Amino acid sequence: MRAMAAAAAATLLLPLLLSAMITASVAAAGEQETLIKVYWHDVVSGPDPTVVKVARAATTNASKTLFGSVMVIDDPLTEGPDLGSSRLVGRAQGTYVSAGKDVPELAMAMTFVFQGGSRYNGSSVAIMGRNEVGADVREMAVVGGTGVFRWARGYAQARTHAFNLSTGDATVEYSLFVRH
Ligand SMILES: *[C@@H]1O[C@H](CO)[C@@H](O)[C@H](O)[C@H]1NC(C)=O
Ligand SMILES: *[C@@H]1O[C@H](CO)[C@@H](O)[C@H](O)[C@H]1NC(C)=O
Ligand SMILES: *[C@@H]1O[C@H](CO)[C@@H](O)[C@H](O)[C@H]1NC(C)=O
């Protein structure tokens, strides 16, 4: 009896398994991998900052890592490293939070939305992850996307290109490896 029941269950399951496998392979076949390199500009200084601090803990000022501060960004993304002369391809909008008590580390949650200067105009990718700002290369997750990046997944690698210690202005190179 038990063997028969198991055989019957297997007969029922087999078509389901096969159809799941076919669906997966179709999705994989239509998929592409796109590499995007952009420069992200966190402008703290000057008359038109693109990053603002919106909250901090009572203890943040005393923390060497500014633990507990919350920033909101609308940072320009450009093709080359120079904000003044490079083509604008999009904006990085979202938040980052100082989330390291001992090591300067940011928890990033932002959307890269591409604009008219980009071939991905109107599409976006969502990036989340741990950004240990002192490390040469920081890896974050690409967790999704819209438009041409629907169903996106992948990863981003961030490398600091320039950091002005007196103003806090930063330019970071982001390489995105996206499957979609
Ligand atoms: C922390 O420092 C900022 C800027 O210097 C100041 O405006 C704020 O009042 C300080 N906060 C606390 C809780 O000390
Ligand atoms: C980018 O997309 C917007 C909104 O869809 C559209 O109005 C605009 O014309 C597009 N720009 C280019 C350069 O394609
Ligand atoms: C940092 O910013 C200040 C103020 O804008 C500027 O005078 C200085 O040259 C900058 N330093 C670097 C290394 O770019």
From TrEMBL:
Signal peptide: 1-28
The keyword Signal appears for this protein: yes
Predominant subcellular localization, coarse grouping: secreted
Pfam families the record matches: Dirigent (PF03018)
InterPro entries named among the record's database cross-references: Allene_oxi_cyc_Dirigent (IPR044859), Dirigent (IPR004265)
Subcellular compartments: Secreted, Extracellular space, Apoplast
GO CC annotations, alphabetized: apoplast
Gene3D superfamilies, alphabetized: Allene oxide cyclase-like
GO terms for biological process, alphabetical: phenylpropanoid biosynthetic process
Keyword set, alphabetical order: Apoplast, Secreted, Signal
PANTHER family: NUCLEOPORIN-RELATED (PTHR21495)
Its biological purpose: Dirigent proteins impart stereoselectivity on the phenoxy radical-coupling reaction, yielding optically active lignans from two molecules of coniferyl alcohol in the biosynthesis of lignans, flavonolignans, and alkaloids and thus plays a central role in plant secondary metabolism.
Family: Belongs to the plant dirigent protein family.
The name this protein goes by in its record: Dirigent protein
Species, as recorded: Setaria italica (Foxtail millet)
Chain's gene name: LOC101782490
